[in-house]
Design brief:
Helices cover 50% and strands 15% of the residues. It is an alpha+beta fold. The protein is globular.
């Protein structure tokens, strides 16, 4: 389970924290759900978010994986509800579109745009964490009336022009 936390003040957004909650294959499903609840509750207590955004489930071929993901999302939502934190959900394509301007962007493209937009300080974040940060950024854009990063000059061309030192 990835998490990403940003601070938004008006139209400005900055990186705060990101990471992953990892499990071993041997962990019992109920113990995993308990840990999702505990970690989500702890992150809420530490960062005191105004809102929580999550990625909506996508339809896949593996029904068991979808069921497990749905349970974990439900537990994370319950942790937020318990702390009176409103929860908003976004579809995967909308998240990618919002961050990169392309709803079919790869995880690598999303991660590269996030690095440029949020300046994560060069932290090496895994895909679960960058996915979570993308959800947070999508929510920020949605709340501030921006459909995509490109409305803020965040398309690839603008990114390269505005950040020559970050492009390798």
């Amino acid at each position: 389970m990835g998490y990403g936390i940003v601070r938004a003040i008006g139209p400005n957004v900055t990186f705060v924290d990101a990471g992953c909650v990892r499990f071993t294959r041997d962990d019992d499903q109920t113990l995993r759900l308990r840990e999702v609840f505990r970690r989500t509750t702890a992150l809420i207590a530490e960062h005191l978010p105004d809102e929580m955004a999550i990625e909506a489930q996508f339809f896949g071929k593996n029904v068991q994986s979808m069921l497990k993901l749905g349970r974990a999302q439900g537990v994370a939502i319950a942790a937020a509800i318990q702390r009176d934190v409103p929860v908003v959900e976004y579809a995967p394509k909308r998240i990618k579109q919002s961050v990169t301007g392309n709803g079919n962007a790869t995880k690598e493209q999303v991660a590269a745009m996030l690095q440029g937009i949020l300046d994560t300080g060069g932290a090496s974040l895994g895909t679960d964490a960058t996915d979570a940060l993308a959800v947070a950024l999508c929510h920020h854009y949605a709340r501030n009336g921006h459909a995509t990063a490109s409305r803020k000059g965040g398309d690839w061309g603008a990114f390269v022009r505005n950040n020559p030192g970050r492009v390798r």
